[in-house]
Design goal:
single chain; Rossmann fold; 4 domains; 5-stranded mixed sheet; 22 helices
């Protein structure tokens, strides 16, 4: 729905996703530059910006990683450009050095960083709370409650950034990113923010004597936040019981107060200015409160800040929230959880039988690779090769991407460790050096093609220089598949749809002195042979597993290959494979006909990769060629 981000119709009401509202806010702010690395839940922001960049006269870039994105934004600030950097919570951690140094030297043109946190880790390995990062860096942070504020806070943040010459961070959470709500459009500028020549004495330099001015700037933000129009209070004039909430917690709390009929008895303070906290505003409501419930995602950040503020002013207040057990310590909030907490604040007993009223819990099911995913074949062949060519059990190190599921049933429980993005090569490099001290286990690590460009290159350079004994497998599926098929330097495309010369993974590895082999995971026999040859060899080896993502290929095929089971040949339960195709292989396209006790292929799920046909011991699975 890109028209909602570019239509010049002030006052028009549009239904928008939170990510879409951020894009609209950026366009209304007249940005000149935007950069990001894909990361859910905010991947769509740069996707949409890239599609409208030429029309609106700004530049949008999928950077190689988040550090490149943020530092590019800082660079454009010298020319008075307005720059937007979009990351998820893990990406903000990757930016830590650049962010802290950026806070010390400040900004000239406006710099806004949008970070999207993922409570309950729906599409992440952790639910890190990015508010602690801005507290550490002494940067200001804003947090919208709904889609309207998601749009409005972007121009507001740019105005503050330029007024106080500092980076401003906007924090989103998954429900704001992916939820939808009505948004009243503002006016679009006729053209982007005007650029200026970089003058001889323009400076953005991180030096120690900038520490004191940085702290003063933070205090200036605190003063601004005392009068921020996005902080709201609703309820009695002198509340003895108070709810302080940020982000989606405001919506949950408001709903709870309405459903319990407590809107005139309990105050609700909606706080958009997360850090620094507006102390005078808060004290105005805290000074008469006896009990305060703090509703926030994920950690007790506001709760601890409010406790410190109350202690500083010797206020006797009982605080409840994430920190004291009033709300769950981990995971995403929901209306029912907040309702229970508000009921306790109001000292209203829970209705009889309330605990038993909930729906039956769903059966838990592990994540799985898509039908025809080349990673499934890769991990099966690797596990088989490790058992065949080594007396000692192999050690496999994972990384971040779709293939993180290789530690589960989907990948035959192949790996022993996975840390953060780009870490796999470094963990394996350390283990590989232990072969000099008697460790005989083969060491294997893996990364995807996008992760290779993101953060694997320094580790590969290190492993090559120090001659670590290990095998690095680059799982090249031609896309940043996990977050929506965004382009990377190996694809030959940019965020704005322009062609560029693709970077060769093989050439880069060879330039570092690595021995490089390529294989196709769908070539079962050939790839098995290559793995069994490489694993016993000493030194660093790189194996590029090249096969496009099945979802990507299914969109390009005119007619997919037909894969089917000849049930006359299928031995069923009498086969020594013990139903390998449907029970062990794990592809959603492989199923079981319980009436005939024979294997069957689901024609809807199957994408026609044909790997299962090569693995069937009875030769019962057949493949008919399609058209590319």
């Amino acid at each position: 729905m890109e028209w909602t981000t570019t239509i010049d119709a002030p006052g028009k009401v549009c239904l928008m996703q939170g990510n879409e509202a951020i894009v609209r806010g950026a366009v209304e702010a007249g940005i000149n530059f935007a950069a990001s690395y894909p990361g859910s839940p905010s991947s769509q922001v740069l996707d949409m910006l890239g599609r409208i960049a030429n029309e609106r006269g700004f530049y949008a870039q999928w950077a190689a990683n988040e550090v490149c994105a943020l530092e590019a934004c800082i660079g454009t600030s010298l020319a008075h450009a307005r720059s937007l950097c979009i990351v998820k919570q893990n990406g903000l951690l990757i930016c830590a050095d650049a962010l802290h140094c950026g806070a010390q030297h400040g900004a000239i043109g406006g710099i806004v960083v949008v970070t999207s946190d993922d409570p309950s880790a729906h599409s992440s390995t952790n639910e890190f709370d990015s508010r602690f990062m801005v507290e550490s860096a002494d940067l200001p942070m804003l947090e919208p409650t709904n889609m309207q504020e998601a749009k409005d806070l972007v121009p507001y943040a740019f105005e503050l950034s330029e007024k106080l010459r500092q980076i401003v961070v906007i924090r989103l959470t998954t429900r704001v990113c992916h939820g939808r709500g009505n948004v009243v459009l503002g006016k679009l500028p006729e053209k982007p923010n005007p650029l200026r020549q970089v003058n001889e004495w323009d400076r953005l330099v991180c030096v120690s004597y900038r520490h004191t001015p940085m702290l003063q700037t933070l205090e200036n933000f605190r003063e601004e936040f005392e009068h921020c129009p996005y902080n709201h209070y609703e309820g009695p004039e002198h509340p003895e019981k108070l709810v302080v909430a940020g982000g989606t917690g405001c919506l949950y709390a408001k709903e709870a107060l309405q459903r319990l009929g407590l809107e005139e008895k309990i105050g609700l303070l909606r706080l958009a200015t997360v850090w620094p906290m507006p102390e005078a505003l808060l004290l105005n409501y805290l000074k008469e409160a006896k009990s305060v419930l703090v509703v926030e995602e994920v950690d007790p950040f506001l709760e601890k800040g409010l406790q410190a503020l109350a202690g500083k002013h010797q206020l006797q207040i009982h605080f409840a929230g994430r920190g004291d057990g009033g709300l769950p310590r981990i995971g995403e909030l929901n209306p029912d959880v907040v309702m229970d907490a508000v009921r306790k604040l109001a000292e209203i007993p829970a209705p009889a039988g309330a605990a038993a009223d909930g729906p039956e819990p769903l059966l838990e099911r592990e994540l799985n690779f898509c039908a025809g995913c080349p990673h499934r074949a890769t991990f099966y062949l690797l596990k088989r090769a490790l058992k065949r060519c080594s007396k000692e059990p192999g050690v496999v190190i994972g990384d971040i991407g779709c293939y993180i599921m290789s530690g589960q049933e989907a990948g035959h429980y192949i790996y022993q460790a996975c840390n953060c993005m780009g870490s796999g090569i470094n963990l394996a490099e350390g283990l590989g050096q232990l072969s000099n001290f008697g460790m005989r286990q083969p060491v294997v690590t893996m990364c995807g093609d996008s992760t290779f460009f993101h953060t694997a290159l320094p580790g590969l350079l290190n492993a090559s220089y120090y001659h670590s004994n290990m095998l690095m497998m680059v799982l090249d599926n031609s896309a940043t598949a996990m977050t929506g098929f965004q382009p990377h330097p190996g694809t030959g495309l940019t965020a704005m749809g322009e062609q560029s010369e693709p970077m060769s993974i093989r050439a880069i590895c060879e330039s570092m002195g690595c021995r490089v082999t390529e294989a196709d995971p769908f070539d079962v026999e050939g790839t098995q042979k290559i793995l069994e040859e490489l694993l016993p060899q000493p030194g660093l080896k790189v194996l590029i597993m090249r096969q496009p993502c099945a979802t990507l290929m299914s969109k390009k095929q005119r007619k997919k290959r037909r894969v089917w089971v000849d049930q006359d040949k299928c031995i069923g339960n009498g086969c020594g494979c013990d139903r390998f195709c449907s029970r062990v292989w794990g592809c959603p396209g492989n199923s079981w006909d319980y009436e005939k006790n024979k294997a069957v292929i689901d024609p809807v799920s199957c994408v026609g990769c044909g790997v299962c046909a090569e693995l069937c011991p009875a030769g019962a699975i057949k493949v008919e060629d399609g058209e590319d």
